[in-house]
Amino acid sequence: MSPTAPPFSSRLLDWRVRFGVLALIWGFSFVFIKVGTEGFAPFQVTFGRLLFGTAVLAVALVVKRDRLPRGARVWSHLTVAAFLLNALPFSLFAYAELTIPSTLAGICNATTPLWGMLLSLVALSEDRPTRVRAAGLGIGFMGVLTVLGAWQGFSGVDVTGTALALLASFSYAVGWIYVRRTLTGTGSSNLSLAGSQVGLATLQLAVVTPLFTSLPKSVEVLPLLAVIALGALGTGYAMLLQYGVVAEVGPTTAAMVTYFIPVIATAAGVALLDEQLTWNTPVGAVIVLAGAALTQSRPPRRTTTPVAGNVNTTDAATATPVVGNRVGTTDGAPSRAQASAL
């Protein structure tokens, strides 16, 4: 079997089916967050999400007999990555959805590639801008202003909640850059790194949550099921689907899931939560996605004929940085905002 071939279990379904399931899970994550915050405090939603996500990944590690990463340096970097890519953005989105609709949160999540390109220009000297990518950055942020209705003074939009959602997306982008600089070439599998990262984020929330929240007086079934689904599906199972798709078709194709997430999040919010939708929201979302797509464009690379006996191969599944619940490219700029929600 080829070293890059996905496991047999992941090939039972065509990759397109798994790609669609992945987009649905991550798109519905914003609905799960909204429903979860109706019964639990935001930190409690995040802690539950991470706890159930860790449980799924831990089972996968045991089944695959994978080993945890080794070395204090790796674990220290994983701790920072866990904060930037899981604990902080997950909590920010949960707090944001107290005051903004899940549709807007899903669209804000799609700005991660824009932040990622902007940061990579500063943090990654080898990542030079092109006119197309620079145009994409400007177009993307024009889309954000369209979604927020900037021409009418942002009326009807909760500025604080929107800022928290955008800050969460920014945190994802910072985390991408950090992972690119510190956790490539560790020798550990993506599953091992991701499971450890989410586990560390769970420990961080286990410390923070009791300090800022109290136990709910009663536990409602629907919010509880939403938190379980958010963690087990959106943070655990979705990662396993992601690895299978990346291994089979490569990170570039897998990253296209980014552009389906806000569409699904918007449709789910309107259909299931009866959220209101004005014309500028879907129009702005399309502009954001168009800009994000342009920022991910790359000029064609020259191809050289490998010298016999010195062929360099790369495993697409292990070349992809770990990003909580996101697919990454190897250039340091996030290609999925989104991630897992996420």
Beta-strand level of the residues, as a percent range?
under 5%
Largest sheet: none
Number of strands: 0
The span between the termini is 32 Å
List the helices and strands in order.
HHHHHHHHHHHHH
Structural class: mainly alpha
Mean residue pLDDT: 81
What's the total helix number? Answer: 13
What's the Cα radius of gyration?
A: 19 Å
- Outline type: globular
Poorly predicted tracts of residues: 1-10, 304-341
Topology of this protein?
Layout: H1 15-36, H2 42-64, H3 72-96, H4 102-109, H5 112-123, H6 131-148, H7 159-182, H8 190-212, H9 221-249, H10 251-254, H11 261-273, H12 280-295, H13 316-319
Helix pairs in contact: 1-4, 1-9, 1-11, 2-3, 2-8, 2-9, 3-7, 3-8, 4-7, 4-11, 5-7, 5-12, 6-12
Q: Would you kindly provide a written description of the structure presented here, covering whatever features stand out?
A:
The chain is 65% helix and 0% strand. By secondary structure, it is mainly α. Residues 1-10 and 304-341 have low confidence and may be disordered. The two termini are 32 Å apart. α1 packs antiparallel against α9 (221-249), α3 packs antiparallel against α7 and α4 (102-109) packs parallel to α7.
